[in-house]
Design a protein that fits this description.
Layout lengths: L5 E2 L6 H5 L3 E2 L3 E6 L5 H15 L4 E5 L4 H9 L5 H6 L3 E5 L1 H5 L13 H15 L3 E5 L1 H6 L4 H17 L3 E7 L12 H4 L2 E8 L5 E9 L9 E6 L2 E4 L12
This protein binds adenosine-5'-triphosphate and magnesium ion.
Amino acid sequence: MHGIRQTPTGIPGLDEILGGGLPAERLTLVSGPAGAGKSTFALQFLYHGALNEDEPGIYVTFDEKPENVRNDMLSYGWDLRGLEKQGLFAMVDGFSSRAGVASKEPYTTELDVDELLTVLVELIDEIGAERVVIDSITAVALSLQDEVAVRKEILKLGAVLSTLTCTTIMTSEMTRKEEVSRFGVEEFMAQGVIVLDYIFAQHGMRTVQVRKMRGIKHSTTERPFKITDRGIIVYPNELIYTQKPK
Ligand SMILES: Nc1ncnc2c1ncn2[C@@H]1O[C@H](COP(=O)(O)OP(=O)(O)OP(=O)(O)O)[C@@H](O)[C@H]1O
Ligand SMILES: [Mg+2]
C-alpha cells in the first residue's frame, strides 16, 4: 500500500488533525479573514521545515514588506535572516512593485503569474527548496482585470505549482465563513483546504478546520488554536466552546 506522503507542519497539534501532515509536493490553500493567522501559519511551516526537516523554503510576500515580515517573525523567536544566510530560506518581494516603491531585496516579482513562476522555478533550483508559500493569492487576483482573467491566471498558477516537487501553501483572504475563496477557483485546484477563523471576538477563540485534503483521511471537526509567542498551537482534542469559560 502506498498513499500520499505527508510532511510535518511544525504546528503543534495540527498534524494530528491532518493524520500526519500536509500532502507532500502538493498544493494546500490556507484561507481565512484578515488577522486569522494565515501568514503565521505559513511561515511556521517554512521555518520548521528549514530548521528541523532539512527542507529549504521560499516565501513570496505580496501583502507585507519583507523587512516587516522578518521583524514580525522575531516576535515568535523565528530568525528568518539567519536561515537566509544559511541558504535555507529565501524571500521573494512581491510587495514593493505592488506599492510602487524600489525594492532592496535580491529576489523580486511583479504581480504577474508568469513572472512569479519564472522567479520561483529559478529560486527553487538555487536553494533546493522543498517548501513554497505564496502569501497571498488574493493580492494576485485583485490585480487582474476581470473574473475570467482571475480564473485563468489562478488556474495556471495552480497547474504549474502542481508540477513542481514542492509542498506549497497559498493563502487567500475570505470575507464570509461560507466562502473559502473569493474567486471560486482556488479551492478546486488545491489538494487541500484549511480554514482559519476567529469566533466570539469577546473571548478571542481562534478556530482551524481542515475542509478537504484529497487522498488523506483527516478530521473535519473545527478545533481551537492559539497564537502564542512561540507561534501557533492547535488543540486537536478540544472542542469549540460557545461561551467564555468562567
Ligand atoms: N507574539 C504574539 N503572540 C500572540 N499573538 C500574536 C503574536 N504576534 C501576532 N499575534 C496575533 O496574530 C495576528 C496576526 O496573524 P497573521 O498576520 O498571521 O494573520 P493573517 O491572517 O495573515 O492576517 P492578514 O489577513 O492581515 O494578512 C495578530 O493580529 C495578532 O493577533
Ligand atoms: Mg497575512
